[in-house]
Amino acid sequence: MNEHKQVSIFNPIYDAMVDVDEGMVEILEILWHQLEIPTLLSCEDNNGKIWIHFDLESFQDFTSNIFIYNPEFHHHFIIECDLDLVIGDDGFVDEDLDEYITGDMLEYSVGFRFDKDKKDEFINGLKTTFTSSNKSITQNSFLPEHFEINN
Q1: What is the pLDDT of residue 105?
Q2: For residues 51 and 113, is the Cβ–Cβ distance under 8 A?
Q3: H-helix or E-strand containing 29?
């Protein structure tokens, strides 16, 4: 198993210090601090790929805003990356660590992977999409801020 050097950084979404792969710090700081997008897991080298795992709603917010504000970047990274839909439940392992207790609700999440040699390009795409356009991410919305629905 390949161990990656871990560093502690502040996650403002969870208001806590968390250990992450050193090679993920810049990406996670953009996602957490600038875009306020939570992540569940990440890895700097998952079989040659950078891996970021989001809950489904956060992934929808993230990708929808990229699609709205930078369609070329959306096509290049979101359409051409590897995606894994994960469906689980909110269960847990009992305190004796010998039995899984099934939860009451399903939970959906998405694993997002892209070639690690495209890391700088990904970071630049994030910065271009959300900082140079003076747009911040639109939370829980899949339409531009100015879009109105007429009844």
Answers
A1: 93
A2: yes
A3: helix 25-29
Q: Do residues 127 and 30 touch, judged by C-beta distance below 8 A?
A: yes
Number of domains the chain contains = 1
> What are the DSSP calls for 98-133, one per residue?
S-EE--SSEEEEEEEEEEGGGHHHHHHHHHHHHTTT
Which pTM does this prediction carry? 0.79
Residue 147 resides in a domain:
no
Q: Does a structural domain hold residue 136?
A: no
Q: Would residue 100 count as lying in a domain?
A: yes
Average pLDDT per run of 10 along the chain, which is 151 residues long? Answer: 84 94 95 90 95 95 87 82 92 86 93 93 86 49 38 36
In this prediction, residue 140 carries a pLDDT of: 43
CA angle 55, 80, 134 (to 5 degrees): 65
HSE, side-chain direction, 13 A CA sphere, residue 120:
1
Q: In what order do the strands lie in the sheet with 49-55?
A: 41-43, 49-55, 106-115, 82-89
